[in-house]
């Protein structure tokens, strides 16, 4: 562990450095503020001890510079000041100092405070690393703004859900099952991952949440957990943009791996939230809205985007679509009006 000591008083420097070295800390000694800033940047110490009164930059200025720099802001700073100097303590704490040691000080107290601050730093570093790991995992499936919202409100990750309007998108690769019969597993997996990469990237681009991967299919929801007033449009534009990207995407694959992608999209109310147990939970949507979107995808063939009437009514001014008429949907008693999306306008003007 490296401890930077910025102290212009010779006697105090000797006491602090000897105390640190006696217990195995590496002491980096400087005598004025500018040198302290340079030493922080050069050595990246685990903790800094600053005297308030130093030539050049004083301890307050050095502390402020350390805490304002994103690369050094997490380094604990302990300041040295006279025992009766209350104003200095308050000012230093306001600038980000983590602790104070009053002069004259006890070497035992100095070590105790250093050990305490380093323990806190280790715990904080661990929590920060865990948060960053969770963020990296979550950002594979949802847009960064959704991750930010959930990280700022961890209480939202509780079992249970709420009824809200969403748009559900199902995407599926046509012909993948037959392709898997005569393709090496590793090659097949690489192809599948490439298609998933394309689909997921577009879903996240337009604010959707990747709910789950279903073999060669993807389920995504829009308007949860982040509210999006134009969620039907975002879902349809996601599908259209994926289709527009296919020609260039096909150039990266052998001809036998040029597969069509079919979509089913429906807008309606569903229960959205965390389903499962306290140990294992899945953020998802359940209900008839999800089922109908899945059925619309299943009836689509040949690079088709099929949307329900409820979705069409919300996007008809932006899309070119053909009315399919009432369709029989497996598992439903009444027929459902569906539309086939041919193209959409406003991809470049969609406000994200």
Protein model, in words:
It is a single chain. The chain is an alpha/beta fold. The chain folds into two domains: 2-138, Response regulator (Rossmann fold, 3-Layer(aba) Sandwich), CATH 3.40.50; 156-344, Alpha-Beta Plaits (2-Layer Sandwich), CATH 3.30.70.1230. Helix content is 42%, strand content 28%. It has eleven helices and 13 strands. The strands form two sheets. Strands 6, 7, 8, 9, 10, 11, 12 and 13 form an eight-stranded mixed β-sheet that branches. It has a five-stranded parallel β-sheet with strand order 2-1-3-4-5, with helices on both faces. β3, α3 and β4 form a beta-alpha-beta unit. α2 packs parallel to α3 and α8 (185-205) crosses α9 (231-250). The longest helix is centred in the middle third of the chain and has 32 residues, at 107-138. The model has no long low-confidence stretch (mean pLDDT 89).
Compact summary:
The chain is α/β, with parallel strands linked by helices and 352 residues long. It has eleven helices and 13 strands.
């Amino acid at each position: 562990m490296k401890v930077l000591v910025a102290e212009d008083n010779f006697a105090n420097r000797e006491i602090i450095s000897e105390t640190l070295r006696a217990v195995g800390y590496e002491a980096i000694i400087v005598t004025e503020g500018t040198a302290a800033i340079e030493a922080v940047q050069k050595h990246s110490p685990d903790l800094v001890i600053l005297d308030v009164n130093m030539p050049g930059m004083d301890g307050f200025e050095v502390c402020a510079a350390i805490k304002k720099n994103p690369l050094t802001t997490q380094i604990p700073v302990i300041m040295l000041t006279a025992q009766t100097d209350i104003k200095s303590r308050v000012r230093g704490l306001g600038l980000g100092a983590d602790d104070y040691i009053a002069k004259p000080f006890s070497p035992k107290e100095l070590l105790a405070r250093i050990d305490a601050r380093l323990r806190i730093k280790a715990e904080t570093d661990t929590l920060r690393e865990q948060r960053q790991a969770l963020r990296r995992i979550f950002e594979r499936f949802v847009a960064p703004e959704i991750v930010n919202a959930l990280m700022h409100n961890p209480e939202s990750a509780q079992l249970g859900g709420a009824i809200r309007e969403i748009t559900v998108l199902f995407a599926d690769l046509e012909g993948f099952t037959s392709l898997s019969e005569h393709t090496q597993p590793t090659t097949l997996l690489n192809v599948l991952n490439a298609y998933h990469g394309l689909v997921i990237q577009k879903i996240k681009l337009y604010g959707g949440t990747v709910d789950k991967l279903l073999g060669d299919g993807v389920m995504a929801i829009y308007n949860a957990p982040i509210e999006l007033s134009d969620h039907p449009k975002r879902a349809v534009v996601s599908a259209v943009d994926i289709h527009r990207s296919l020609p260039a995407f096909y150039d990266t694959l052998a001809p036998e791996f040029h597969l069509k992608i079919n979509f089913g999209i429906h807008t309606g109310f569903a229960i959205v939230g965390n389903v499962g147990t306290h140990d294992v939970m899945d953020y998802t949507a359940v209900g008839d809205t999800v089922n109908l979107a899945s059925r619309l995808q299943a009836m689509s063939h040949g690079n088709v985007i099929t949307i329900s009437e409820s979705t069409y009514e919300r996007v008809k001014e932006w899309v070119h679509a053909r009315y399919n008429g009432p369709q029989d949907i497996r598992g439903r008693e009444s027929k459902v009006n569906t539309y086939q999306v041919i193209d959409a306008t406003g991809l470049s003007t969609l406000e994200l």
